């Protein structure tokens, strides 16, 4: 009797039996959409069949293509450095903004509370931790997400009244976005530290670095950040955990003007070394402002299911979706799959945090990990080949590939652009984010780096809300 040729649909556990018994078979790597959830399958089917125009074309696909085109056309240019109170309406000394979706003081994680305490010390509103805590408990301090004010910040993301901010204009569409100046390494406020050295460095950024850097940027006529990001990808950066090339490319753009404006300045060497030598992550904040200026252009496109923001406050992970405006869809943050510094482990780690996942919304960072072989082991990936697989899988959940940002290590294919919540829910593939890991206690600082994803629940809830809005 002849042997049957078996077609196996996605059940890996059957394969050894076929091999052992010499049974001809064809294996299809197939999974049911939405992990077999019938409610979600029904939503996806209705979205595909009911939301069509008179020609039968998908209204969602057309809206998502509009979002893709707007993001690809964006030209983020660094224009100047300003101060938070100059650009945020009605900001006072008692106003502080933070990373992630909204959260109450009593619900904040240790590093976030530590950063708030530091910000109050920096602004001269408190001299001790106890005074700062009492002020936060009093209700006198107004606080909320950076994203509400065209701003982003890494990790805790503190933005207070006196802080200098990079101003980036998307010259294609005229909108602006802002981010703080990267503090450098060691004990820093973005990881929840708030000691005297942290406050002293922040004052140095405000009073010494920012004025000189602002003059150099203006004298240079601005700096096109998209050009730098494109070139840095070809030099091994992914612009989230590795910014070595991008930081040096930025310095090259402003080095002449910076030398001119710091001539005779006693702080000239410290200024130059901070930008060009002592802070490999200097460009991260610029990449965040650049991608924020790009992602903001796709807000409120009817029928669009592209993610316009991803952000974390150390407790909850939140996303915004284009057609749903500033509505947050939240679920508890995950802990990164991380490589920890000596002496630390997962038990020490705070759940994921920061506005920096805005760069993944533009297809860089973890989405483009295949561009940055040197970052693979630092973020805990097993191999360069695994990084390629991560990047390839991102193509399955995005609108298209942005050839303005090619990845040389992957045959110059463009980064995957436009995370589509429909595709995420259907495939079960989540966006990959490269991230730093903060200690769960305030003041300890960074204890590692790794890979994390949004919780699937945020994508599911966003899809359900979208369906409730558009389906009759």
From TrEMBL:
A Pfam family per the record: AllG
Top-level taxonomic group: Bacteria
Coiled coil region boundaries: none
Protein name: DUF1116 domain-containing protein
InterPro entries per the UniProt record, alphabetical: AllG-like (IPR009499), OXTCase_su_AllG_h-dom (IPR024033)
């Amino acid at each position: 009797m002849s042997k049957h040729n078996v077609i196996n649909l996605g059940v890996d556990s059957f394969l050894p039996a076929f091999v052992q018994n010499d049974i001809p078979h064809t294996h299809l790597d197939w999974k049911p959409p939405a992990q077999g959830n019938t409610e979600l399958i029904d939503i996806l089917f209705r979205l595909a069949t009911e939301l069509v125009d008179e020609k039968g074309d998908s209204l969602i696909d057309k809206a998502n293509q509009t979002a893709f085109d707007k993001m690809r056309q964006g030209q983020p240019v660094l224009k100047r450095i300003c101060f938070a109170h100059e650009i945020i309406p009605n900001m006072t000394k008692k106003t502080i903004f933070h990373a992630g979706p909204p959260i109450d003081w009593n619900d904040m994680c240790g590093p976030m509370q530590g950063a708030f305490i530091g910000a109050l010390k920096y602004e001269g509103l408190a001299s001790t931790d106890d005074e700062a805590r009492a002020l936060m408990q009093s209700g006198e301090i107004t606080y909320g997400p950076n994203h509400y004010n065209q701003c982003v910040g890494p990790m805790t993301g503190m933005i207070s009244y006196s802080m200098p901010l990079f101003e980036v204009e998307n010259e294609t569409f005229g909108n602006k976005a802002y981010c703080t100046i990267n503090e450098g390494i060691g004990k820093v406020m973005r990881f929840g530290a708030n000691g005297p050295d942290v406050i002293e460095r922040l004052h140095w950024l405000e009073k010494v670095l920012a004025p000189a850097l602002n003059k150099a940027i203006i004298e240079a006529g601005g700096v096109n950040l998209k050009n730098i990001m494109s070139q840095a990808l070809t030099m091994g950066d992914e612009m989230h955990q590795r910014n070595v090339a991008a930081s040096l490319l930025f310095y090259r753009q402003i080095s002449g003007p910076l030398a001119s404006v710091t001539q005779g300045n006693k702080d000239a060497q410290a200024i130059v070394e901070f930008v060009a030598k002592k802070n490999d992550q200097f460009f991260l904040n610029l990449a965040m402002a650049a991608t924020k200026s790009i992602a903001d252009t796709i807000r409120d496109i009817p029928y669009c299911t592209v993610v316009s923001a991803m952000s974390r406050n150390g407790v909850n992970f939140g996303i915004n979706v284009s057609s749903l405006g500033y509505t947050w869809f939240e679920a508890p943050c995950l802990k990164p799959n991380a490589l920890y510094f000596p002496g630390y482990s997962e038990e020490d780690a705070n759940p994921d945090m920061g506005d920096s996942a805005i760069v993944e919304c533009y297809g860089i960072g973890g989405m483009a990990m295949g561009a940055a072989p040197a970052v693979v082991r630092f973020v805990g990936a097993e191999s360069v080949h695994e990084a390629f697989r991560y990047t390839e899988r991102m193509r399955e959940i995005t609108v298209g590939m942005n050839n303005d940002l090619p990845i040389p290590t992957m045959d110059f294919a463009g980064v995957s652009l436009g995370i589509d919540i429909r595709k995420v829910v259907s495939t079960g593939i989540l966006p990959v984010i490269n991230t730093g890991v903060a200690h769960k206690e305030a003041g300890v600082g960074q204890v590692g780096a790794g890979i994390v994803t949004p919780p699937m629940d945020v994508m599911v809830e966003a899809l359900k809300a979208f369906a409730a809005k558009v389906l009759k």
